[in-house]
Request: fold
Amino acid sequence: MAKTEQKTGRNSGQTVNILLAVICIVLCALSIYFYRACDSLNTAVLSDDAELSELLAIYDEKSAELAEVTETREAFNDLDGKIAEIKEVYFKNAVKAEELARSGNADFKVCYLTFDDGPYVATTPLFLDVLEEYDVQATFFCLAKEGLDDLYKREKMNCHTIGNHTASHTIRYVYSSIDTFIKDLEENREFIQNLLGITTDVMRFPGGSPQITYSGLNRTKMIERIQELHYGYIDWTLMTGDGGGPYFMTPDEFLHNVVDYSADYDVISVLMHDYSNNTLACLPEMIEILKEQGYIFLPLSYDAPIVKKE
Ligand SMILES: [Zn+2]
Reply:
């Protein structure tokens, strides 16, 4: 009996030992499993950190690029404003240059080259080419012509002044009354404003300002009306003669009509037309001779002393 009990007790002990061993094995297995799981989790987190840092770096880089692009775009949005600022400074200096030339204390003279009645599809680009080649700015007294947008735009882009010469230039019509003249003048201002975004404030009367009186209109009242609308006007000092006089004149005669007299002045405006092939032919030599005579070339502005306000 005692032996049996002793045997039973030994068997129970063995069972407990086996159970403990199994528990130990299971615990070890679980430990290894959790250790591995934690390790792979750590690796994943570390790897995510690296990717996150990389993404943040790219984000910073792209943010900087975006800021730069936005700044550039804003500058472009305000391009007209910037051009207006530069033009203001430029024309202030141009006015001073003319005043200085008039005072006789300058070692230069001032020439305003002016071209009326355009633009013309066949010849205006050739005039613009010559002016570009000599890096000279001029003034184009334009009419309102449909279908020639690119020419008006090139005149503006090449920094020439766009002057107002009425929309139609039909002498009998525009000078039929002061109201009719103003209507035609304003129609051209609106045409150029819509096309180029600039307000013309320098004008030339078709046929010149004496045409007001020739047409039987009151000159003083006409000038008052254009002044109310903030226009200055200009006639001319010299001309090639391409505006209707004797058509048989050669380019050489056109040239001499200007350069034989220009030496007598400190400030001149030269009347030409950008439809004349003879004027085109003599223009390069005219520019060269005028330069030799000490002239610099400026585009007109409202404030230029040569532009009349009364
Ligand atoms: Zn004209």
